[in-house]
Specification:
single chain; 5-stranded antiparallel sheet; 7 strands
């Protein structure tokens, strides 16, 4: 059976379900409640009629990217038509899309890649975030009681995400989500990712889950109080206030409930924390660990790693990863599996650490203790310096991948290998010793 056949068969099945739902309306005392059920099933039929969107997302992955935006729109129309969208999407919605030049500039200047760790944290884990966040916890106590019980996500994390994403709803973004996503889809750097987000946004429009008029958000296409991308909205959106629709822009309850559901579904472990700040011993054996790799917590205990109060790490069966955002002269963290759940939300370790540290402060902890005592002595590097270092490491056989100026896993591993070969502290960080030793080679 072809795709159309499957779609028609599925719609026939759903129509039979709808018929039963409809016939039961008049025998029920709660007529209004069943009306909602009727329209929910109707929406489900429409969603299933668009199943080719998801099928073709895997089959038709021809990039739509093109420097000529008009040609890119032509490519987008073809992609949308092959995915089964209506003429309203292919003619009206796509027809009204226009590029936003500023979006590309913002994409190249994301703060995760242009600020030091200390600068990034100080700008986000502020006294204001803590004060307002604690007020939000008090004001929404009943909601958070319910969300914790139902989804297993502690309230301080939900409020931390809320504060970091939109400063508790103050800055939800005013750019056209359609235009932003289209601009990024037409750019070669991450074309396929944003094309799929755009196609899923078309599904939300086609199924009347959102209206075009609602679609304001960030330059990257994130929407509402918690800045959900269209795919996350499509998969995880919850009508938390039970008014018959999901509104992540105006309803704090819908937004927070959707966030709790999202974190629960992507693997949040309810009885575990995100990680912890730790203290490394003098002359820590960096040669005994690799970065971006998990080890049993007991292994770090055997290497002399302690809590910040110099007490021993807990006896607990959990995997942990050592992360040094500013090298061995800066703060040190052990990251637990929930940290990776946070990174599913935003693939930046600095962002994920901000979520964890702000959540700690909302729960009454001290926050980042290292910065309260001293500043990292290491000078920050520039994107250009990092690109040059990556090229030099590649030429010496320490593979970093294509130079991009980003201190990612491959670069950390390459720098560590270079440091070990040259009897340097193998912290994987591009510090002055690494640059000076490279220049001397």
């Amino acid at each position: 059976m072809n795709i159309v056949g499957y779609r028609l068969a599925f719609i026939s099945f759903l129509i039979s379900v709808l018929a039963k739902e409809y016939s039961s309306m008049y025998s029920s005392k709660s007529f209004v409640k069943n009306i909602h059920s009727f329209f929910n099933v109707r929406k489900l039929i429409i969603v299933c009629s668009l199943l080719p969107v998801f099928v073709n997302a895997k089959i038709d992955n021809t990039t739509i990217a093109n420097e000529d935006f008009l040609q890119c729109k032509v490519n987008l129309v073809e992609r949308a038509e092959s995915s089964g969208f209506s003429s309203y999407i292919t003619e009206t919605v796509i027809g009204n899309i226009s590029p936003i030049k500023r979006v590309i500039a913002l994409d190249k200047k994301q703060p995760e890649f242009t600020q030091t760790f200390e600068q990034y944290i100080k700008a986000r884990v502020t006294d204001y975030h803590v004060r307002v966040g604690k007020n939000k916890l008090k004001q929404n106590k009943e909601l958070f009681d319910r969300l914790e019980k139902q989804y297993g996500v502690p309230r301080q994390y939900l409020v931390s995400f809320w504060g970091l994403e939109t400063v508790f709803g103050k800055h939800k973004g005013k750019m056209s989500v359609l235009n932003s996503l289209a601009t990024l889809a037409c750019d070669e750097r991450r074309s396929e990712f944003f094309t799929l987000e755009l196609l899923n946004l078309f599904t939300l429009i086609e199924t009347e889950q959102v209206s075009v008029e609602q679609l304001q958000g960030s330059w990257a296409g994130a929407m509402g109080h918690m800045q959900f991308m269209p795919t996350a909205f499509l998969k995880y959106a919850i009508d938390g206030d039970n008014d018959g629709k999901v509104d992540i822009w105006k309803s704090e309850i819908d937004a927070l409930t959707t966030a709790a559901n999202y974190l629960n579904q992507i693997g949040w472990q309810s009885k575990e924390r995100w990680g912890r700040e730790v203290k490394l011993p003098e002359n820590f054996a960096f040669d005994k660990i690799a970065f971006d790799q998990y080890y049993p917590l007991d292994y770090f205990k055997s290497l002399g790693v302690k809590k910040m109060n110099k007490q021993s790490l807990p006896i607990y069966d959990i995997q942990a990863e050592l992360y040094l955002p500013s090298g061995h002269k800066g703060p040190a963290f052990l990251l637990y599996p929930n940290f990776n759940v946070i990174m599913t939300w935003n693939l930046s370790k600095s962002y994920a650490l901000s979520v964890g540290l702000l959540a700690n402060k909302l729960a009454g902890a001290k926050g980042l203790e290292f910065l309260q005592k001293e500043q990292t002595k290491e000078k920050p590097y520039s994107v250009a310096q990092m690109k040059s270092l990556q090229s030099q490491l590649n030429s010496l056989g320490f593979e970093t991948g294509k130079p991009d100026g980003i201190w990612g896993p491959k670069s950390r591993q390459a720098i560590r290998s270079f440091q070990l070969k040259n009897q340097l502290v193998a912290d994987g960080y591009p510090n002055t010793d690494v640059f000076s030793t490279m220049d001397a080679n």
